[in-house]
Design a protein that fits this description.
The structure is a single chain. The protein has about 300 residues and is an alpha/beta fold. The chain has two domains: about 5-80, no CATH class; about 90-290, Rossmann fold (3-Layer(aba) Sandwich), CATH 3.40.50. About 30% of the residues lie in helices and about 20% in strands. The chain has seven helices and eleven strands. The strands form three sheets. The chain has a seven-stranded mixed beta sheet with strand order 5-4-3-6-7-8-9, covered by helices on one side. Strands 1-2 form a two-stranded antiparallel ribbon. Strand 4 (about 115-120), helix 3 (about 130-135) and strand 5 form a beta-alpha-beta unit. Helix 2 (about 100-110) runs parallel beside helix 7. About 30% of the residues are buried. InterPro entries: Formyl_transf_N, Formyl_transf_N_sf, GART, GART_AS. Its main location: plastid. One of its GO terms (biological process) is purine nucleotide biosynthetic process. It holds the Pfam family Formyl_trans_N.
Amino acid sequence: MSMRTQGLVLGPSSSSPIQNPKTPTFLTPPTYFSSAKRVWLKSNYSFSSHSILLASTNLRHRNCVVKTEHKVVSDIEEDNLKSKVRRKNLAVFVSGGGSNFRSIFEATLNGSVHGDIFVLVTNKYDCGGAEYARVKGIPVILFPKNKDAIEGLSTEDLIVALRSYKVDFILLAGFLKLIPTELVRAYPKSILNIHPSLLPAFGGKGYYGMKVHKAVIASGARYSGATIHYVDEHYDTGRILAQRVVPVLADDTAEELAARVLHEEHKLYVEVVAALCEERIIWREDGVPLIQSKENSNDYR
């Protein structure tokens, strides 16, 4: 485009993604796996475009033309990158309000994450995360099955259910149960967890929720943060994939520190899941996972 060009330039909107038509939008009771009846609702495509008005040829507007052209090219390159990678099917595990689950779900809708949440798994069927999933039409599975309960799935049935949804990755977002060895082996290098401290500090059995933040403050640590790691057969011992640091202030309460860490969790988890779905996780020879930069394939973090 000439820098003298005036008029109307139309470009694709990066804020209005096309929703995946294969995303199921049906409701499922906790005993869905024993039922042969399922209700499927078709998803609708959503299109929009934006326009950019170039009305002058002075230097200031010429700069706008150049920046606009670069933005359009950037959008096209990103779309081409995603078109070469299949959208991933995600399962999220929660035990509470599921704020990280909500952040990831919203990111799948706005195009930040090249994947879709096909099912939510919870050990508390009436928790906030499960209620949100049902409102959004995401199937909810109760796991693990209690000894005296009729509802809920065994580990074996859960694996079969996840495979029926063709789940690629499992994301733990405040799930307070230890993941069974059988599930870890069924999904090698495919299960992530987020923990509200800088692992390996303040991790392991018993370190969850507000207990973590109280322990951090009591220790005198000057920094805390969020860690995303791969899940193995133990609590919080899998390979670390990403971390985000926050300061611990001299007069912090556990609640204040928790809020600061959670704010970073929401951003970090979306960034990591985006890299996961775009197949930008690279494993170093010594077994350490790294995230490949979207802008430069030779940069890692």
